[in-house]
């Protein structure tokens, strides 16, 4: 079952004070920031007689400035979907649109943050952040200034000249986030960025990411396998089916207020339970698949 | 939010303490930064190569602090002192024949005479020029070749069979061929050294290019880097430490194999000195030549290890 969210659906600003808004107002918003239209990706695997379908018939719109989280059982093609949006691989079927234009390859209008940071170990924190700016041919002086600015933004002032191996996991991920923000992409694609961090670091980075998102108004697609994380961060949570991955349901996350401990809000528990129920069957199906494939 | 900002700062200070050179020993035994993250990146996982490199690195790193710690210095020089003592005493008390193995003091006197007489400098110079020429030639020619093979699949497919064949052909087996083609003069010896040095550099360069962390490539590609920039900004810097491992190995070979060439046909060089001294029964001179070549090898390796360290500081992960 595929539920396609449409723009006429009630749009809610999860973070806003006023959760009620006139739906008619949203019709003026013609075009989604990211449009995923009936996208499928099939891989050919050497030695296997059948091709491998990672995702199939995915339909999803991400609005400009939205924070969308994507959850699904392991191996459901979440990362494949992110690679497709990033333009690192081309879809087998369907189209991916950014601002209405089809994605043909990677570009600096989209930034990716990986779970394993992917920092260049021979570059200092500052030089890592400058990397995307070099690709964009920004002059050296301006590069330096912007890199410093984003290092400050992620709270790492004073760590400019540290190499990645001299930083903790959380700090490395901050550098990676700063690197992706520095070349000022419209869209930030995050592939389980906090999964390798300890619980405390993860929570503080989640809060900071929300702060940065509010400050920079990026469109964020955030993959996670944590239901709590998905509910906490997302304005909407897209739940995927087991392989081949499809969008099972998209849930709007609305809180009256984000003050205080959001996780203690009864609605948080309700959302959590709803997603957990949706995922339970998919996880079982995914495990069944793994068993039969061996 | 202020609280949130304070936390990373605190944890950062802790981490950096662990990464401090003073604490390097602690970091090496696993007192890394908190959290499971650092060990999980592929770049941190030590390969056999890394371990070998680290071994040399540790050895070189502790050489200088050792001077400050007498106990360690004593432990490190004890074996050498014992060897010297045995060399001096055993021939004198007649355990070994002092004609074939003269005491160390006689060897050192012979060494000094050769130095003062100018022969040692002459031979040393001849050897060094040959070694360095072959070595430099190997660096200049095989690094670009290795990069091409590692980066372009078609080049690899084309050259691999030939390279596999030659790789398994000993340089020593080819020396007669080199002499036939290039004569007994300098070119054949330099080519011989070049041939022996080329393999470790070539193979390490290829592996350096091929084993670049795929995630780094993916990350760079996601930032819109084309093939050329990707090679320049990611593949090359990532391969540098592995290439240097090859260069260091080649440095050792350059001296080891040259000796052989100089023993087969030469009128100068430390290999010639050793061979000639043996033929004319100047046994102390022979040992003087051997000691010189050992010290030369040692110093050369030390130099290369230092250079290698300079170029790959970022790889010294816990």
TrEMBL record, chain A:
Matching CDD domains, A to Z? ABC_NrtD_SsuB_transporters (cd03293)
Residue span(s) of domain ABC transporter:
34-267
Chain positions covered by the region annotation Disordered: 1-27
The protein's UniProt keywords, in alphabetical order, are:
ATP-binding, Nucleotide-binding, Transport
Question: Which Gene Ontology MF annotations are present?
Answer: ATP binding; ATP hydrolysis activity
Q: Per its UniProt record, what InterPro entries does this chain match? A: AAA+_ATPase, ABC_transporter-like_ATP-bd, ABC_transporter-like_CS, ABC_transporter_ATP-bind, P-loop_NTPase
Bias (Basic and acidic residues) occurs at 10-27
Q: Which domain of life is it from?
A: Bacteria
Is Lipoprotein one of the keywords?
A: no
One Pfam family it belongs to: ABC_tran
Known PANTHER family for this protein? ALIPHATIC SULFONATES IMPORT ATP-BINDING PROTEIN SSUB, TAURINE IMPORT ATP-BINDING PROTEIN-RELATED
- What name does this protein carry? ABC transporter ATP-binding protein
Q: Which organism is it from?
A: Planomonospora parontospora
* Organism lineage string: Bacteria, Bacillati, Actinomycetota, Actinomycetes, Streptosporangiales
From TrEMBL, chain B:
Record's protein name: ABC transmembrane type-1 domain-containing protein
What UniProt keywords apply to this chain's record, in alphabetical order? Cell membrane, Membrane, Transmembrane, Transmembrane helix, Transport
Cellular localization per UniProt = Cell membrane
- Which family, according to UniProt? Belongs to the binding-protein-dependent transport system permease family.
* GO BP, one annotated term: transmembrane transport
Membrane-topology descriptor: Multi-pass membrane protein
Domain (ABC transmembrane type-1): give its ranges: 124-304
Region of interest (Disordered), residue spans: 1-47
What does UniProt give as GO cellular component? Answer: plasma membrane
Q: Which domain of life is it from?
A: Bacteria
Whether Cell membrane counts among this entry's keywords is: yes
Ranges annotated as spanning the membrane: 132-153, 165-184, 190-209, 253-274, 286-307
Q: Is Ribosomal protein among the key words of this record?
A: no
For this protein's source organism, the top of the classification is: Bacteria, Bacillati, Actinomycetota, Actinomycetes, Streptosporangiales
């Amino acid at each position: 079952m595929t539920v396609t969210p449409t723009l006429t659906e009630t749009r809610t600003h999860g973070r806003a004070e006023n959760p009620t808004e006139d739906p008619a107002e949203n019709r003026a918003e013609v075009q989604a920031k990211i449009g995923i239209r009936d996208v499928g990706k099939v891989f050919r695997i050497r030695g296997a007689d059948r091709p491998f379908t990672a995702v199939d018939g995915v339909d999803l719109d991400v609005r400009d400035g939205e924070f969308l989280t994507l959850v699904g059982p392991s191996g459901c093609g979440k990362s494949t979907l992110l690679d497709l949006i990033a333009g690192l691989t081309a879809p087998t079927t369907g189209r991916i649109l950014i601002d209405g234009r089809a994605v043909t390859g990677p570009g600096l209008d989209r930034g990716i943050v990986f779970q394993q940071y992917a920092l260049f170990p021979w570059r200092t924190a500052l030089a890592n952040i400058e990397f995307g700016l070099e690709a964009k041919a920004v002059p050296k002086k301006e590069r330096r200034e912007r890199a410093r600015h984003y290092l400050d933004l992620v709270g790492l002032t004073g760590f400019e000249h540290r190499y990645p191996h001299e930083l903790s996991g959380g700090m490395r991920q901050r550098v990676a986030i700063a690197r992706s923000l520095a070349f000022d992409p419209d869209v930030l694609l995050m592939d389980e960025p906090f999964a390798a961090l300890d619980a405390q670091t993860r929570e503080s980075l989640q809060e900071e990411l929300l702060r940065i998102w509010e400050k920079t108004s990026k469109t964020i697609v955030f993959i996670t396998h944590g239901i709590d994380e998905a509910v906490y961060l997302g304005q909407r949570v897209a739940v995927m089916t087991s392989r081949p991955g499809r969008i099972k349901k998209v849930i709007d996350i609305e809180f009256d207020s984000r003050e205080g401990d959001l996780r203690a809000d009864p609605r948080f528990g309700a959302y959590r339970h709803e997603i957990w129920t949706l995922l339970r069957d998919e996880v079982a199906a995914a495990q069944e698949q793994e068993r039969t494939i061996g | 939010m202020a609280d949130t900002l304070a936390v990373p700062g605190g944890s950062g200070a802790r981490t950096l303490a662990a990464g401090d050179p003073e604490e390097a020993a602690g970091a090496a035994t696993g007192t890394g930064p908190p959290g499971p993250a650092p060990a999980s990146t592929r770049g941190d996982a030590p390969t056999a190569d890394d371990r070998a490199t680290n071994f040399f690195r540790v050895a070189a790193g502790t050489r200088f602090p050792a001077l400050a710690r007498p106990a360690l210095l004593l432990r490190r020089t004890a074996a050498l002192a014992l060897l010297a003592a045995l060399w001096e005493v055993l021939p004198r008390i007649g355990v070994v024949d002092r004609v074939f193995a003269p005491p160390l003091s006689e060897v050192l006197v012979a060494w000094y005479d050769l130095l003062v007489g100018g022969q040692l400098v002459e031979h040393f110079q001849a050897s060094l020029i040959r070694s360095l020429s072959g070595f430099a030639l190997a660096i200049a020619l095989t690094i670009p070749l290795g990069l091409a093979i590692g980066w372009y699949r078609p080049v690899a497919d084309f050259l691999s069979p030939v390279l596999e064949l030659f790789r398994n052909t000993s340089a020593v087996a080819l020396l007669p061929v080199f002499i036939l083609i290039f004569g007994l003069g300098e070119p054949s010896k330099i080519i011989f050294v070049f041939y022996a040095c080329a393999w470790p550099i070539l193979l390490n360069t290829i592996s350096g290019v091929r084993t670049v962390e795929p995630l780094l490539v993916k990350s760079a590609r996601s930032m819109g880097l084309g093939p050329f920039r990707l090679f320049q900004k990611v593949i090359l810097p990532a391969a540098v430490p592995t290439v240097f491992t090859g260069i260091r190995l080649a440095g050792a070979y350059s001296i080891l194999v040259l000796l052989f060439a100089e023993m087969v046909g030469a009128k100068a060089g430390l290999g010639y000195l050793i061979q000639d001294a043996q033929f004319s029964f100047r046994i102390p001179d022979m040992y003087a030549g051997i000691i010189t070549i050992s010290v030369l090898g040692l110093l050369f390796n030390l130099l290369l290890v230092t250079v290698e360290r300079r170029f790959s500081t970022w790889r010294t992960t816990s």
